[in-house]
Amino acid sequence: SQWKAIYANNVHFIDPTQERHGIDAYILAQNNLLQRCDDIFLEPHSIALNKDVAFIEWTMGLKIQGIEFIYPGATRMTFGNHGKIIEHRDYFDFIGPTFGPVPILGNFIRWLYKRFVAWPSAYKYTIPILEFDWRGDGKNLETQINIHWGYEAQE
Asked: Which pairs with CB-CB distance under 8 Å and at least 24 residues apart come from 109-116?
């Protein structure tokens, strides 16, 4: 198959929805995706290569049961001594584009993103700070988790 020409037999594949080991498991994962989709596209934008590692920025579109999902993302591929891909890792937001359009659930997802993901663009770095507070006696323990962000202003 075309996959075996560029992927090593022991390829390790990871994306936000699955992890597969070996070329046969990788091919099965790709075939399962293609069978679920009415249409699919993958548009590359940028490619960077440094020794045995390549990064590819892309946009993937899937049409499943007439609904189109758009996923911007990136892939890191590591090449072995023989020139074949030994690791393929995809990075993309699966939750937002998949569940964002769903009524009720989409509103909740957008609220979560605004609450926990979005931060002011005037800041260069964000540091999530988790504070755990345990209270109670030996029988009843109450836990409170507080999340706040530390920022470093842009210069």
From this structure: 116/147
Position 154 scores a pLDDT of: 43
Distances in Å between the alpha carbon of 71 and those of 99, 106, 113?
A: 12, 16, 16
Decide: 145 and 132 in contact? Cβ < 8 Å. yes
Q: Render the burial of 87-124: b for 16+ CB within 10 Å, e for the rest.
A: bbebebeeebbbebeeeeeeeebeeeeeeeeeeeeeee
**φ, ψ for residue 26, nearest 5 deg:** -65, -50
Tell me the Ramachandran region of residue 51: left when phi exceeds 0, alpha when psi lies from -120 to 50, beta otherwise. left
Q: Which amino acid is at 147?
A: I
Largest CA distance in the chain: 63
State the chain's mean pLDDT as an integer.
78
pLDDT at position 26 is: 95
Q: What pTM was computed for the model?
A: 0.67
pLDDT top residue among 135 and 12: 12
Dihedral in degrees, nearest 10, Cα atoms 25, 54, 93, 22: 10
CA–CA separation, 57 and 75 (whole Å): 7
